[in-house]
Structure formats: C-alpha cells, structure tokens
Design brief:
Blueprint (H helix, E strand, L loop, with lengths): L2 H14 L1 H38 L4 E6 L3 E2 L2 E2 L10 H10 L3 E16 L2 E10 L3 H4 L4 E4 L4 H5 L4 E4 L1 H8 L9 E4 L2 E9 L14 E5 H9 L6 E6 L5 H15 L10 E5 H44 L1 H9 L4 H38 L7 H27 L3 H6 L2
Parallel strand pairs: 5-10, 7-9
Antiparallel strand pairs: 1-11, 1-12, 2-3, 4-5, 4-8, 4-11, 6-9, 7-10, 8-9
Length: 406
C-alpha cells in the first residue's frame, strides 16, 4: 500500500474517535508545554541574574580580610584590621591591570530627616567608588577627591531611602539628613538599581566619603574591603595576580605563609550563580519531561486498545492481500500523528503559558528555540517508540484467528 493511502487510513481512524484521540494527545500536549514553560522560566532567571550581577559592577574585583587564626583556632574576619588605605595606594600604583580602586567601609543605622527615619546602610568610598560599582547619578553630583580626603559630611542617597524619608518621587538633593547623629548634606540622588540576585535592595543605601564614615561613624583607621575595576573581563585574571602580589608584599608575607586576605571577582560570582541556575533549569526540564513519558505510555495504551477493537478489520485486510508491513506502518503512522499533533499544540500552549506566567508573576521569561525543537523531537520519538510494539503486534496477527475474533 502506498504511503499516502496509509496516511489517509490513519487519519480516518483518528477522526472516527475524535475525543479519544484528543485525550490521548493530551499527555503529549501537557508534557511539551510544561518542558517549554519550565525551561523558559529557568533561562529567563539565568539571564536576569547575569544582568543583576553586571549591574553590581563591571569587571569588578574586591579584596576582603582573610580568616584569622589564634592558638590554632580559625577566627572570623569581622575583627580583622589587615586592610588599610596604604594597601589601596599600593594597588593603585602597582597594578596596571586595575583602572579604578577604592577603599570601602560600611555601617548600619537609622537615617533621620525631620520626623521620618529609616534603617539603612551607609557605605564609604572615594571618588572612584560609583564608577567601580556602576552607580549612576540622576540628580546632583559625586563627591570629589578633596571631599574624600577632608572627611566632608556629604552623601549620595538611594531611591529607597529618599522615598522613605522625603516622600515618593521627591528629589532630596541639597537637604540635610542625619545618620547616627552625624549631619550629612545630600549632594546627589542615585539612579535606581532594584534588587540584586540575592534579593537585597540596592537602592537602600547612603554613600559618603570613606574618611567620614571611618572617623565620624566607625571611629577606626582600617578599612573593611577594597573595591576595584579591571581594564576588561579578559584582564580580570591578570588583575587578580597583580593584586595578590602587591598585597603579599605590603603585608610582608613570606613564601611559605598563606594569604591573610581573599580576592574575589564578579566573574567568579557570575559563574557560580549561572551554574546553579543551569542545574535548576535541567531539574525543571527533567520534571516536566516526566509528563512526556506519561503521555507516551498513554499513546501505547490507546494503540493497544485500537488494535484489539480492530482485530477483525486487520484480519479482513490481511485476508485480501494486505501485508504485515502495511498493517505495522498504518498503526505506527497513527501513533506518530498523535504525537506530532500533540507536540504542535503543546508548543503553542507552551508559548502562551510562558507569556501568562511572565505577566502574572513578573518573572523574566525567555523561551529557547532549542527547548522547542528538543521537546518536539522527543515527542516524535515517543510516538515511534510507544507505537511500534502495538503496531508490530497487529502486523503479526493470524488472519484466520483475527476474523474469528469477537
């Protein structure tokens, strides 16, 4: 029998049982739609995390104090006084792969304006701090190098703190705000950044000269970390090597001594976060793929029922010259058509479901064409795999026994 005729026979068989055919396809439809939607959520989350990490500072590196040992016992880093402004100056002059470097100190407390107050964090840096952290100013100006050296009581304010203290949408540039009873004049309003990949509000900040935070708020001479920008992403590895060499020299560490500091980069953070999201995306896809397997089992079950119902028809076809190969191909084509039609509907439903999920939850959604192609290919293979055995069983029926079947 010609292949075109086999398609017509298979199509007529599916049309005779429209509801059963649709219910059989439903497992494939749900499976394909689930795979596309889950992978779209996972991929969208990955891209969102990458964008958020990039917003925290392009090609950024930072140095933090290493763990301390006292009497063989590992101590924390909170009390470490290993990093100083001298280290910052040494990195500035001794690392040509670094284009900007700033000390960083920070303190938590209440910001107060008139009768309003808000718990926040004040960060201290030099005039390069905003550049390193990729902060933009929408109103006002950055503090100068002279203000940083002179412990000027000026600050920049994040959008969240401005809204809480001065009212939503207000530009507080020029106003005075108090932090731990120290008055600061607001000289600039920072552009909104939103939450970072750890759920922290990046706009809930005040930024002031590091000397001001050191002397007037923390009353300390050491710094808590060093923030830097490499010339490019490719130069990050070289920059790390140069910074390590400079700090080992300034800290007078011997060759057999471990570093008393740690160097981290945004690239390392991005790699870690994307590897986690990749694993979660694969996990989501695998869970959704189980429904494809269930759909395949449903096709196999229905094809068994179809073979049983049409046993006399099969016997009649074979008695008038129908070959076993034609019978096998007919039922196999029915199974494949169920999978293919279900896959096409599932793709449309997957696109629609992804859009709906994105609109309702405000999650970033990115539909990958690779997931569409993969899920469609898998559902086609499922049609062949689960339809072959019932089709083979039908092709091996004895014509006489089939005609006698009640």
């Amino acid at each position: 029998m010609k292949l075109g005729n086999l398609f017509k026979v298979a199509m007529n068989a599916l049309r005779r049982n429209k509801m059963r055919s649709f219910l059989t396809m439903l497992g494939i439809i749900i499976g394909v739609a689930s795979v596309i939607t889950m992978l779209a959520i996972g991929q969208g989350s990955k891209k969102s995390i990458e964008a958020q990490i990039a917003s925290m500072g392009s090609n950024m590196l930072f140095v933090i104090p290493g763990s301390m040992r006292m009497g063989g016992v590992q101590q924390g880093t909170s009390g470490s006084q290993r990093l100083t402004v001298a280290d910052v100056n040494a990195i500035r002059t001794g690392c040509d792969a670094i284009i900007a470097v700033s000390p960083e100190v920070r303190a938590g407390g209440q910001a107060v304006y008139s009768r309003s107050n808000w718990p926040t964090t004040i960060y201290g840096g030099n005039e390069k701090y905003l550049e390193i952290k990729s902060w933009a100013i929408v109103s006002g100006r950055n503090f100068t190098a002279e203000e940083a050296k002179g412990s000027a009581k000026v600050c920049l304010i994040g959008r969240t703190v401005a809204d809480e203290l001065f009212g939503e949408g207000t530009d507080p540039t020029g106003e005075m705000v108090r932090f731990k009873n120290i008055p600061f004049r607001i000289i600039g309003l920072l552009k909104e950044k939103g939450q970072n990949s750890f759920g922290q509000d990046q706009d809930d900040v005040l930024i002031a000269p590091y000397t001001t935070v050191q002397k007037r708020i923390l009353a300390q001479t050491y710094i808590q970390s060093i923030q830097m920008s490499a010339k490019s992403a490719e130069a990050s590895a070289l920059a790390q090597q140069q910074v390590e060499a400079v700090l080992r020299r300034t800290h007078k560490l011997r060759e057999n001594e471990n570093n008393d500091f740690e160097i981290r980069s945004q690239e390392e953070l991005a790699t870690t976060m994307t590897s986690v999201t990749d694993i979660l995306t694969i996990l989501l896809g695998a869970i959704a793929g189980i429904s494809l397997l269930v759909g395949g089992i449903g096709i196999m079950n229905i094809m068994y029922v179809s073979v049983t119902e049409r046993t006399r028809e099969i016997g009649l076809r074979m008695s008038i010259g129908g070959r076993g190969a034609d019978i096998l191909m007919q039922f196999l084509i029915e199974s494949i058509m169920l999978s293919v039609f279900g896959g096409l509907i599932g793709i449309l439903l997957g696109f629609a479901a992804s859009k709906v999920v994105g609109a309702l939850t405000s999650w970033p959604i990115t539909v990958m064409w690779s997931s569409v192609i993969l899920s469609f290919a898998v559902c086609t293979v499922i049609g062949v795999f689960f339809g072959w055995y019932p089709a083979r069983r039908a092709s091996e029926l004895d014509p006489i026994d089939a005609l006698r079947y009640e």
